[in-house]
């Protein structure tokens, strides 16, 4: 009998959170990125549940059916980690292994950094842990980008990116998913361009027939979610990089001590933009057990390579001391 994914709502950290869950056993929490939802983990939820774990994938703050506070300042990493701590409380669980992809990876890393008593191990996909730097993040981005476009800086102005991305949600999601994936030809996307351009100018449209790792019905799910919610909630995460930097000052120089697994594609633009972060990961995460680099895989790690990601996660989870 196939394991069923069930859905419900919990109260956590002052918001109402939608979760997808399956299975029984030790708890594994799966945190998605931008522009995604619990559905990004659809391949892993049932596979991990069948292996004997209680798997919970929330729509994080600002996404899907979970509350999206109006205040832009309500999307710092302290809010987001607090949501997951409150999720454990709502589930009646003391501890969980936390996994995160894209923006979910900083949530996972910071949960392990700030609350190792609740999160005894961490799995991060695509985004390596980088300790708090000496300067404000947007100042560093402006210095690095110069006169070129950089998407995080473009996302800072409320309403600007929303207007572009929401004009045609299906086209936006098709272009972004393709362009950041291993399917896009090298050099065809994310090229240097003047900073007065828009985000989708940076991407390539593969056309409506593209359906390799993201099937039409799967794209339909994302489109229906973001047509309903818009992109503001997810974009607000980007608008808090400086505020989070300020709030994380007490953790400056701190290392993540719990066991960790890192998985990424060798064609992931995040990795390509900062290869030293992967090379130096064990310096900042001394209990890093394994780094798995997936050949030909782009940014959407667990969706592009579901079997390999699930296998690596299970290999790591079997060694965790709960």
Tell me what the structure shows:
α1 (42-50) links the parallel β3 (27-31) and β4 (54-58). The chain has helices at residues 42-50, 77-91, 104-114, 137-145, 151-154, 160-166, 169-179, 216-229, 232-238, 241-247, 269-273, 275-279, 281-284, 301-304, 306-317; strands at 6-12, 15-22, 27-31, 54-58, 97-101, 122-125, 260-265, 288-294. The protein is built from 15 helices and eight strands. The two termini are 28 Å apart. With 322 residues, it is α/β, with parallel strands linked by helices. α7 packs across α8 (216-229). It has one domain (6-317): 3-Layer(aba) Sandwich (Rossmann fold). It has an eight-stranded mixed β-sheet, with helices on both faces. Helix content is 39%, strand content 15%. The longest helix has 15 residues, at 77-91. The mean pLDDT is 97.
Give a quick precis of the structure:
This protein is of the alpha/beta class and about 325 residues long. About 40% of the residues lie in helices and about 15% in strands.
Q: What topology does this entry show?
A:
Layout: E1 6-12, E2 15-22, E3 27-31, H1 42-50, E4 54-58, H2 77-91, E5 97-101, H3 104-114, E6 122-125, H4 137-145, H5 151-154, H6 160-166, H7 169-179, H8 216-229, H9 232-238, H10 241-247, E7 260-265, H11 269-273, H12 275-279, H13 281-284, E8 288-294, H14 301-304, H15 306-317
Parallel strand pairs: 3-4, 3-5, 5-6, 6-7, 7-8
Antiparallel strand pairs: 1-2, 2-4
Helix pairs in contact: 1-15, 2-3, 7-8
